[in-house]
Design brief:
Elements: E1 3-7, E2 10-13, E3 18-25, E4 34-39, E5 46-52, E6 55-58, E7 66-71, E8 76-81, E9 90-96, E10 112-113, E11 117-122
Parallel strand pairs: 2-11
Antiparallel strand pairs: 1-3, 3-8, 4-5, 4-9, 5-6, 7-8, 9-10, 9-11
């Protein structure tokens, strides 16, 4: 069984930065995609960034500001978030799926989820 635990959330002002981490335990294949999703109050969950091998995918709203990376030795995924905006405020979730490609692909149901970490950006 795979367990995902997020950390690194917090409160920052507009323009600030945060680095989220997702520590995976259990057997997690390097051939699986991993990704970050977020959900703001009253809104649907949306994909933020995904990584598979050396390929990354980003939502248009975060391109150029967020960077996803993965440490296969430490079994940890990261999301570096720069130039944060109030609209980035949400609960951020780490996710992993059983095969590669883009975890954010429309219609894809990702199998494993973390509990989430809150990110709040104030103006």
């Amino acid at each position: 069984q795979v367990q995902l635990v997020e950390s690194g959330g917090g409160s920052v002002q507009t323009g600030g930065s945060l680095r989220l981490a997702c520590a995976a335990s259990g057997w997690l294949s390097s051939s699986w995609c991993m990704g970050w999703f977020r959900q703001a109050p009253g809104k649907e969950r949306e994909g933020v960034a995904s990584i598979y091998a050396d390929t990354t995918y980003y939502a248009d709203s975060v391109k150029g500001r967020f960077t996803i990376s993965r440490d296969y030795v430490q079994n940890t995924m990261y999301l570096q978030m720069n130039s944060l905006k109030p609209e980035d405020t949400a609960m951020y979730y780490c996710a992993a799926d059983l095969y590669g490609g883009n975890c954010l692909a429309p219609g894809r149901e990702v199998k494993y989820w973390g509990q989430g970490t809150q990110v709040t950006v104030s103006s």
